[in-house]
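Table S5 (text form). Sequence records supplied for joint modeling of the two-component complex.
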Amino acid sequence: MSKGDSRAGRLSPFHCASLNPRLTILFVFLVGGPLIAAIWFGLRIVDSQAREERQKQEQQIESIAMSEMENTRDLISDQIASLQKEFATLTETTLADETAAREIPRNHRLVRQVFILENDGRLLFPPGDASRRTAAESEFLDRSGEVWRSQKRFYRSYDEGTRVSGDRTGWHSWYWSEGLQLLFWKLSAKNGRVIGLDVDRSALLATLLQPVPDNTTIPNGTVQLKNTGGTVFHQWGSNQDVANQQPLGSVDLRHPLTSWKLISYAPPSAFGAGENLRQTARLGFYTALGIGGIMTVLAALWFYRESSKGIREAEKKVSFVNHVSHEFRTPLTNILLYTDLAQAEENADQLKRHLSVVEDEGKRLHRLVDNVLSFARSERGALTVRKRSINIDKAVEEEVDTFRQAFGEKEIVVELNLQAGGTAFADAEAIREITGNLLGNVEKYAADGRWVRVSTRRSGATVTITVEDKGSGLTKKQSRRIFRPFYRVHDEVTEGAAGAGIGLSIVQRWARLHGGNVHWRPGPDGQGSRFSVSIEAPLESKPSEPK
Amino acid sequence: MKQIKHILGLAGLIIATPAFAGSVKVDAQSGHATLLAGEKGTTFIKVGLTGKKWERPQTDRAPVNVALVLDKSGSMSGDKLRQAKAAARQAIERLTSNDIVSVIVYDTTVKVVVPATKASDKSAILRQIDAIQTGGSTALFGGVAKGAEEIRKFVDRERVNRIILLSDGLANVGPKSPAALGDLGKSLAKEDISVSTIGLGDGYNEDLMYELANKSDGSHHFAESPQELAGIFDREFGDVLSVVAQKIRIRIQCAEGVRPVRILGREGDIAGQEVFVPLTQIYSEDEQYVILEVEIAPGLAGDRRGLADVSVTYFDLENQEEALTKEALTIAFTDSEAEIRELVNAEVMAAGVSQIATLNNRFAMKLRDQGKIDEAKVVLTDNSIFCVTAGNLWGDQGLIDYGEQNEADAENLEGAAWTIRRKAMVEQQIYNVKGGLQKTGTIRKSE
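The corresponding structure-token record, covering 994 residues in total, follows.
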């Protein structure tokens, strides 16, 4: 339905909407409400999925971090175990004298000092006499003072020892200065003496760093080796500052380094995949929402237009009823008037004239009713062609004859050129209505041309009925619309020539049902109109003539 | 002596050996040939070790096993790292396919960019060096630990081990005290891995660098500007590539009545009468020495007593064998002070004074650290007089120069110059420990 069909049709839907604020509000609620609800639910779903994914990823990364750290812890434990073996061998050669005892720390990178305890716990070496001690030995006794003061604790750690070739060996730790200090001890099964080694803290740490990996598989992850005091001994993986990062987990080292632990960190970017997923999901959601939103708005607009179209259609139907009523009124008035006149008339000629007027008006009424019925049938889809054997030329001529009186009154010259020839297979009612409507239009709108030519022509199975006049004709724009129902070139009921606006529409429908169509051209000499209606009407004598 | 024989299993080598047996000339001397009778006396024992000129062709030098441990912390960015890379490149170019090299970089973490490998495919090594980028903190301890780990992969008594550490900042990840790094250095020295430390700019901790280098018998360099790095690397590699002996163990067994008081400058220990000093390496045509201060019980005029037995073991890289050198020192007693003066060994006395002057310089530095600027100034001024007097007395130009420098140090204890000054002082101290004052052109001239 395009603009200009009628007055109502000229207005845009929005223009219409502005005329009807309630409809606008309804429209906004119907479209906006579901959209907002969809956004809210959609975002919640997307976010919760992303959260779940992130949690899953976090758990995954945590478990990787934990197993990595456990692995590192085991490597460090192995390192300690192999040191324990190495030290057990190192203390194998019974340190007969002080010189031999002093030789060990000079050569072993991890040993800072050797000490020997008698089986009663008495310190045999370093010597009790300070003048016989080296500076380092005196320093060692100072540093390890706590160990000798609380021998009970030291002895208890004997129980924790591991047996290496008959002797118990183990570790003892205490705290001094920079932190954890470590002693190795071996309790001889032979004489109950304890030979111990003071392990150099720096060298031990350097040794423990040997099995530590350079990297972690966690992207940008960091692992730190720390003591309980928070001092970082070593860091690997990324070189980032982990001060603001959440630890993924921590693993305590095993005896004797139980106060040391491994802590793993990962920056938020390590969970980037989850975050990316969230972004992607959000993007997908917004895209879907955008498309869905546009579709919803378009559907709403379409619905809106459909409903306003319905209103327009209803308006047109009202107008149609007005026009039809008006159409009925004129012949009915005439019939009543001339019947009245006839009743009072005594002159036979005059009476006959009156009755012929009544007959003409009756025919007009009949045509009108036929038209309306046909239109109604076609609207229901019930208009059907019933072909019978007829003489087309004759049917056309009969219809022309019904107009002769009216044309005569309006001084319209009728020319006939009927050459459809022979009996054909066609619907007589259709031909009558086609011709009648075209002639009716000439009578109503082209009477000032005072000329009409009706011709028929056959080309194979196709018969063309042409009606030409010399009236005021149509503009190109008008010519494109005249076949639409309810379209009237002059849409004024009060205008001299009235009509329901369905005549040409019926002509077109009949023609199409009859396997053809209707075309308008300017009339002869470029003025007036020329309507050509083609229909399929094969000659009966040669019904199967191919086209 | 039996014990030494027992421990080293070198019984076969213990014969009366000449002082110049292998690639090292051992020269044990006493500061005094005679002491005043009837009084407790003090003197120095100097054990000088001079590397012989490498006789074989230079291409046949002892192969080295070098770990470059480079700081790539954020502060190294720009010219510092560029110059460090260039210096490292240039140094690596001097290596041959017999040498082992590894490159370790550290910031907050430690990465081995070139694991210990033969220096045959230099272009691959240099590519790794070129790719180094800065960022992060300073895990100095971890860097050295990993460097040592790389060295250990190819330990060989015929190969010269050396870690060369470059840092421009304060160690802030891992152990960071000078003592902890000193312990690490001492532990590495037992494996004959020495650590040479290079401090760049004015932001590093020279005490830490000093401890690490001194305890591991490495050297220490102060590069005030990145442009100096190329020269320092060149000198350092020059040293490493000219080592003629390593794993040097000096044992001084003091005779009865002789009390070892202290070892001046170097790391070592005194256990009863026995003094033990380890040295990692001796360079060709270069003298290192150990100064021991001893206290001697009174003797009678005309008496001659044993002072100390000195034995030096080392691995002779040129002849690829263990070597042992032994010397015995005696001391005589006299009533004639003139005779004592006449027989004084000026060289030993100058060396002893050098070490004491260095300790004084360190003491003054500590006072300055405690904010006792005036006291530090007095110590430095006194030290200056001490050096100049002794230098004139013993005919030692190095001492005189050092005296002048101490005087200049006394004037530079305050203000912005101090940070730089302190680093230069520490560099000089460690150089002195290695006998620097007795070498020519050894003073880092003060501005």
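Note: Residues 22 and 316 of chain B are 6 Å apart (CA to CA).
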